[in-house]
């Protein structure tokens, strides 16, 4: 019998981002929802067929989504808060209202809060269970999509986010914690039980429930919760008309602390991540064994990176698993949602380079080849062409080290990791130097990247305009955005980042060591996609990157202009990192490159420099016990290395795209920035309590309005927000700013929103 193959999930946005384009076209009124539905159906069909042709055994369905799979789950379970139901919109528009807010003739509501999906750069919408909600199986999306595939002759493996993960991520309104009581557990368990029964009667063979929350540290009662849910759910695999097998899928880490429970419960399949949780998962298998009826789905193909799989490593893992059980399937380690579509279109990369990469489509072939090799005897493996081809990628060194980078790192001293003098002393000096009012207003850096800006960049790329013409255009954009910021009365201005397509790609393009793709897009949230660069070899700065733009902007105004950089941890986290040297090594290289830029900005007269670490939290290990040793202990010093060389009067800002740092608040202070801005308007404000309790020293600007939505906040609303902030923080350390950069917004909503923000700040200031 050959080894079965299973894909945890496949990207849905389309090889050419068709889904994004179609949905955004609908939002702009370009076409109706039927167009979107047709595009979606076409994509599902194409993606199933690609997997079928690649010989994949268990092809996922219901991994498709218009916006987010957790939002789909909420809707499936009837968890639609009153305020969205009251709008009385169509099902699709209700979904979009929950995802991105709604402001129109039917009402005015903000979107659900959005959070990062575990350690990825994907964002999910937080399920909200208010008092009006009782959980039942309220929708039919998974069944419709199963039948749709079946009509094409493909019996898929439907995929749902499991009940445990759903409940652990769900909140009450306003982000309040959810009390998971008996009644709720029963409701959720019976909804999922009905799902299994429906699939049994529809003729599904396997159903996959994703329970990534299992890879987190357990709190009291977690294991009990898991058991009570599944004790109810598992028996409904057998319905009157047939039966299904249930695959319990975990990913992004190991389940060493719960594997014994999983084994006892008697799942038909257990999916384990052997990329991110290899040692602990193997140890758990060896210790507790595998029940007779259970198949282990060995996740050996990385769903989180784009490098070719090392077959020898994967076969080693499979052989180890097979020492414990003969029932093994080969699987992706997580959903392929987090990698781009296909390498095939990357004709800009040299074949010698390109052969090192596998995106989603290529990973399907890897799965199949690994499964075939797993089946083969030693003799056959030795003779295998696919194995030889694969091994040639890993023989010897892929790239040679850059000696100047290596020696610079070797010569680093402890002093270079620490800025002098202490922050309180700096804050005093900076106040004198910058002449800012209390509650200073600023923005996070970017202003709307209009069609016009993108068109000019495209013209430059296609050689239709000269570099001089392009630069003149950017300067005119800077002039205009400075004038507008002055007009509405912002205190610390920005140049607008018009020269950047993306805060990471732009720096990558100007550093040695990076590679770029044409079309390697990955979904970030809703219809937003990102195209991370690839770290290919050692990183260093070839020449100044942003200095000319910032210096130009500062020369055009009397007010302070903030310079704008991306920090080393974020550049790495939003790139495809190398697998042949550590993340720490790569981050240190990046820190030195950005440090050069910081010092050049200062020398050019820039007094405030923001170093964005939007993604600092993203790669925080999922288990607390690993936080410091495996990450913070080198990531935080790397940030300090970037700015430790500036003068005391130069103000260093940082920015983060989230506010969940209650638990790492001391580490945030240890970054030793002078000011931090962070996203806050869509999150609960418990971070303010933490700031208060911890006597946080860094001045802080919790975002006062949401920029992920086109909605315009009123002045009053922002004043109230500032009031909430001042309840918890001393006015002398508060900054007023939006949640994040304004690049994805239009000018139509940006300027009124900022006007309201500045007016709100002034009104509150007057009352102090
Ligand atoms: N400075 C960047 C901007 O304003 C920050 C973006 C981000 O945090 N994602 O766009
Ligand atoms: Zn941000």
TrEMBL record:
Belongs to the vitamin-B12 independent methionine synthase family. It is an enzyme of class 2 (transferase). Residues 439-762 form the Cobalamin-independent methionine synthase MetE C-terminal/archaeal domain. InterPro entries: Cbl-indep_Met_Synth_N (IPR013215), Cobalamin-indep_Met_synthase (IPR006276), Met_Synth_C/arc (IPR002629), UROD/MetE-like_sf (IPR038071). Keywords: Amino-acid biosynthesis, Metal-binding, Methionine biosynthesis, Methyltransferase, Repeat, Transferase, Zinc. Its EC number is 2.1.1.14. One of its GO terms (molecular function) is zinc ion binding. GO terms for biological process: methionine biosynthetic process; methylation. Its cofactor is Zn(2+). L-methionine binds at residues 444-446, 497, 612. Pathway: Amino-acid biosynthesis; L-methionine biosynthesis via de novo pathway; L-methionine from L-homocysteine (MetE route): step 1/1. NCBIfam families: met_syn_B12ind, PRK05222.1. Residues 5-324 form the Cobalamin-independent methionine synthase MetE N-terminal domain. This is 5-methyltetrahydropteroyltriglutamate--homocysteine methyltransferase. Binds 2 Zn(2+) ions per subunit. Binds 1 zinc ion per subunit. It catalyses: 5-methyltetrahydropteroyltri-L-glutamate + L-homocysteine = tetrahydropteroyltri-L-glutamate + L-methionine. Zn(2+) binds at residues 655, 657, 679, 740.
């Amino acid at each position: 019998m050959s080894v079965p193959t299973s894909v945890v999930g496949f990207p849905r946005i389309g090889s050419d981002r068709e889904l994004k384009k179609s949905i955004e076209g609908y939002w702009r009124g370009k076409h109706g929802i039927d167009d979107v539905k047709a595009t979606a159906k076409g994509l599902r069909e194409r993606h199933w067929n690609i997997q079928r042709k690649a010989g994949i055994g268990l092809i996922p369905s219901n991994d498709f989504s218009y916006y987010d799979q957790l939002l789909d789950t909420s809707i499936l379970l009837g968890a639609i808060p009153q305020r969205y139901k009251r709008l009385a919109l169509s099902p699709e528009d209700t979904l979009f209202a929950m995802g991105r807010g709604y402001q129109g003739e039917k009402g005015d509501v903000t979107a659900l809060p959005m959070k990062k999906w575990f350690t990825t750069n994907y964002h999910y919408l937080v399920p909200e269970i208010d008092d009006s909600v009782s959980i039942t199986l309220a929708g039919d999306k998974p069944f419709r999509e199963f039948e749709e595939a079946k009509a094409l002759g493909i019996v898929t493996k439907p995929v749902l986010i499991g009940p445990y993960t759903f409940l652990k991520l769900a909140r009450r309104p306003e982000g309040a914690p959810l009390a998971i009581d008996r009644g709720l557990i029963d409701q959720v368990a019976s909804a999922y039980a009905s799902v299994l029964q429906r699939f049994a009667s529809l003729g599904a063979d396997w159903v996959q429930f994703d329970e990534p929350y299992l890879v987190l540290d357990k709190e009291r009662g977690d294991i009990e919760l898991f058991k009570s849910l599944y004790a109810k759910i598992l028996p409904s695999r057998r319905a009157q008309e047939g039966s299904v097998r249930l695959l319990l899928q975990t990913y992004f880490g190991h389940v060493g602390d719960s594997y014994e429970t999983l084994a006892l419960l008697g799942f038909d399949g257990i999916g384990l991540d052997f990329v991110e949780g290899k040692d602990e998962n193997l140890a758990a298998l060896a210790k507790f064994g595998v029940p007779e009826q259970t198949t282990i789905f060995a996740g050996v193909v990385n769903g989180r990176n784009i490098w070719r799989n090392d077959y020898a490593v994967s076969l080693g893992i499979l052989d180890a698993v097979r020492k414990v059980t003969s029932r093994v399937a080969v699987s992706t380690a997580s959903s392929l949602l987090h990698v781009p579509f296909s390498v095939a279109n990357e004709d800009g990369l040299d074949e010698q380079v390109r052969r090192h990469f596998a995106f989603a489509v290529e990973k399907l072939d890897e799965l199949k080849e690994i499964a075939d090799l797993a089946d083969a005897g030693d003799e056959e493996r030795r003779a295998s062409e696919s194995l030889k081809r694969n091994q040639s990628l890993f023989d010897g060194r892929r790239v040679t080290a850059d000696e100047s980078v290596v020696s610079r790192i070797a010569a680093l001293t402890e002093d270079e990791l620490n800025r002098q003098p202490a922050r309180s002393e700096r804050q005093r000096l900076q106040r004198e130097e910058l002449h800012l009012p209390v509650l200073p207003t600023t923005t996070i850096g970017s202003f709307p990247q209009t069609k016009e800006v993108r068109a000019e960049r495209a013209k430059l790329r296609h050689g239709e305009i000269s570099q001089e013409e392009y630069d003149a255009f950017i300067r005119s954009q800077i002039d205009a955005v400075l004038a507008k910021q002055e007009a509405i009365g912002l205190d610390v201005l920005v140049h607008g980042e018009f020269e950047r397509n993306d805060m990471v790609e732009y720096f990558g393009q100007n550093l040695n060591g990076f590679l770029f793709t044409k079309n390697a897009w990955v979904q970030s949230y809703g219809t937003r996609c990102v195209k991370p660069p690839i770290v290919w070899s050692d990183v260093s700065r070839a020449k100044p990157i942003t200095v000319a733009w910032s210096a130009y902007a500062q020369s055009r105004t009397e007010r302070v202009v903030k310079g704008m950089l991306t920090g080393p941890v974020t550049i790495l986290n939003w790139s495809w990192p190398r697998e042949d040297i550590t993340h720490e090594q790569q981050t240190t290289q990046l820190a030195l490159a950005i440090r050069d830029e910081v010092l050049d900005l200062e020398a050019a007269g820039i007094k405030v420099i923001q170093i964005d670490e939007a993604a600092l939290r993203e790669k925080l290990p999922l288990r607390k016990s690993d936080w410091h040793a495996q990450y913070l202990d080198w990531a935080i010093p790397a940030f300090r290395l970037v700015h430790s060389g500036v003068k005391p009067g130069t103000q260093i800002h940082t920015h983060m795209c989230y506010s969940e740092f209650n638990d790492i608040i001391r580490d945030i202070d240890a970054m030793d920035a002078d000011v931090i801005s962070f996203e806050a308007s869509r999150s609960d404000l418990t971070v303010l309590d933490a700031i208060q309790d911890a006597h946080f020293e860094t001045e802080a600007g919790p975002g006062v309005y949401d920029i992920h939505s086109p909605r315009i906040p009123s002045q009053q609303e922002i004043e109230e927000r500032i009031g909430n902030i001042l309840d918890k923080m001393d006015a002398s350390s508060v900054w007023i700013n939006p949640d994040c950069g304004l690049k994805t917004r239009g000018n139509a909503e940006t300027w009124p929103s900022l006007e309201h923000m500045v007016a709100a700040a002034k009104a509150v200031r007057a009352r102090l």
